[in-house]
Write a structure and sequence with these properties.
Helix 9 (112-129) runs antiparallel to helix 10 (132-148). The chain has eleven helices and no strands. By secondary structure, the chain is mainly alpha-helical. The relative contact order is 0.10. Helices cover 78% and strands 0% of the residues. The N and C termini lie far apart (55 Å).
């Protein structure tokens, strides 16, 4: 039976961490290599878990901030698409200095900016170019985001608002 937190939240984060542990269980050479490197610095931490769980936890603590840093790409393209290249570089540069990227590193909340900015980019580009494929990608990413958190549903309100503004502006 899952703990209460796992019973009231979407399964995305649990499956994410489970798949990382599964990856290290199936790649014994990779696990042993990382374990030898990490056991030098993290010995007290590593003793509390199995080898796979310990390496998975350390790997996740690096992977999640890396995914958060990938938010720079859709932020840049949003700025470039709707303003110009100079504004896009400024926006992407400011994102780098947000302290939450470093302070909340083991939490899945750091992946939500990547999903939300990508969803917004594809949806607004779909409205601007009048291509359905961009909106379909945005809706698939929205479904993936809901798989990880219900907080991403706030973007659905943004999409409805932008769609209403776009439709009423054309009349």
């Amino acid at each position: 039976k899952f703990p209460i937190h796992a019973q009231t939240h979407p399964p995305g984060p649990i499956i994410f961490f489970w798949s990382i542990n599964f990856l290290f269980e199936k790649t014994y050479f990779l696990t042993e290599t990382f374990y030898k490197i990490l056991s030098y610095n993290f010995k007290p931490f590593l003793l509390k878990f199995t080898k796979f769980q310990a390496i998975g936890a350390v790997f996740s603590s690096f992977l999640i901030p890396f995914l958060s840093c990938l938010s720079i790409v859709p932020i840049y393209y949003l700025g470039k698409e709707f303003y110009d290249k100079k504004i896009a570089i400024i926006c992407a540069s400011f994102y780098v200095f947000i302290p939450a990227v470093a302070l909340m590193s083991p939490f899945m909340d750091l992946t939500y900016p990547l999903l939300s900015t990508t969803i917004i980019y594809f949806f607004l580009t779909g409205l601007k170019t009048n291509k359905l494929s961009y909106s379909l990608v945005a809706s698939m990413l929205l479904a993936l985001g809901v798989f990880f958190t219900f907080k991403i549903l706030m973007i659905f309100l943004f999409i409805i608002t932008m769609l209403a503004i776009f439709l009423f502006r054309e009349k």
